[in-house]
Design a protein that fits this description.
127 residues, homodimer, three-stranded antiparallel β-sheet, DNA-binding, 7 helices
Chain lengths: 127, 127
Amino acid sequence: MDKPDYSRLAKQVKLMAHPERLHILDALRAAPQCVCHLEALLKRPQPYVSQQVRILSRAGVLESERHGNNIYYHLSDPELLAWLDVVLGPVAEGADALGRHQPIEECSCPTCATAASQAVAPVILAA
Amino acid sequence: MDKPDYSRLAKQVKLMAHPERLHILDALRAAPQCVCHLEALLKRPQPYVSQQVRILSRAGVLESERHGNNIYYHLSDPELLAWLDVVLGPVAEGADALGRHQPIEECSCPTCATAASQAVAPVILAA
DNA sequence: GCGAAATATGCAAATTCATGCATGTACTTG
DNA sequence: CAAGTACATGCATGAATTTGCATATTTCGC
């Protein structure tokens, strides 16, 4: 019977109401991702990605963890996670069953590098 | 495996990313509502309400039906409806089991008027 | 400590959005 | 057809968003 807090909800919803941010969130809900990863995924300059990440961070829906030079972000807000599941459908985007992120050629973070060198031929270093 | 259309989804999500619009959508998913109703509900001037309604209308998520002088709008997009159920929780906001809208004192549309005169004392006409 | 890699921050221009208000239109009733 | 009611539309202005870019910061390998 209590009215929802439309202001608060709208503010949270707004986080998804942006194509690139939605893309980031989609990637992030699957598994922690470093910025270079998202950069490769979105095909946008790093400062651009960092800024969108910051918007999400400052909204309190993200958590970060540093691993050497890379900073891995992941979604920490259950509410938003639930919404994303409905808007985007169940998690698919580049995540495997273990919750690790899918290696991307354009990304050179440790996770991607080792994964790539183990799986496919290391064409990465050639380019 | 196919990537979601982030642009399209973001655009649709944006419809909810606004307090007043979210409020309108909440009311609208329960039952058809006329503008005067929403006006009373939001406590905002009529042109303001009409404009928000138009945004939703032009996005194709609303349907309208005229009854005499009043125009009743209702949500016609199942996708958005599903999202609203998750964001706002199950329908509650002023709808009864029959899907009629709850009469509001400030509203003078036929539905409200008759409902009011039958139920509580018609204090409405006094003010 | 130095340079390189990964990420963050600040700023500015362009665009979009929000909102108030005056006025226009459509239907109804007498 | 005249007047009233319900709703729509146009416009103006200020605020917020978007996006690009230059530059700062942090950490690692040497």
